[in-house]
Specification:
Shape: globular
Number of strands: 18
Order of helices and strands: EEEEEEEEEEEEEEEEHEEH
Largest sheet: 9 strands, mixed
Length: about 270
Amino acid sequence: MRLQFERRGHSTILSQSRFTLPLQVLTPLVLEDGTAYLMLLNPTGGVLGGDQLFTEIVLEKETHVCLTTPSATRIYRTEEKPAVLETAIHVGEDSTLEYLPDHVIPHAGSALRQSLRVEMERGSRAIILDSFAAGRVARGERWNFSQIDSRTEVIACGKPAFLNRTFIDPAAQQPERLGLMEQFGYTACLSLFADGFEDWPAVAAAMHAELQNVPQIKGGVSLLARGGCVVRYLANSASGMTRTNKCLWDAARELVLRLPRFDHRKY
């Protein structure tokens, strides 16, 4: 899949769109502030071992794009090769990216290798969410997958701003051990970036306060060395994590993007 966005008057439009199934994109909606709100989807219902899916997204100068998915991404059992998901996003000068896909659900016996690389130019801003489940928790499948190898990299103005690597091999190290996931079955990481923004301690304190108001969630907030902060949290349920994602996203929009909250329903 390759998507490109450009500014037309007050609004951001999808100027180029090319994709091959099982990747697909719906027609974007334009919010009141001109943001392009777009859903990325896989109509096949999941990702199989051996699949290699690549997504490239380009935000041209002064655009604002909000990307999400209609539901969680399911990773199915594989006998040999892992499922591979690679995403590369370029955020142009003075542009804004909100990248908030639903969580990943690894089925028993599945293996996933995914990567997200975001390159940000001068004056750009971004809210990025990465989350996954321990498996099909409601079916009693906790940590029954083979492997998850997930990497998120953010480059701001040509310099590394954030690198997050998650590697889970349940057979080698049980994630339910004390000090790791323990009794929690869901984990998420929300990262915020804004070139030129300086009041990060206040943002971190506000995000920490938001976390304290959400029941059955454990998490914390860390400042980045170069223009940003990261919120990490654990949840006991998918619904609890989803509520927390929404709460923190809304707060990030107000604190960093200076934009109001909006309806998060899946259009």
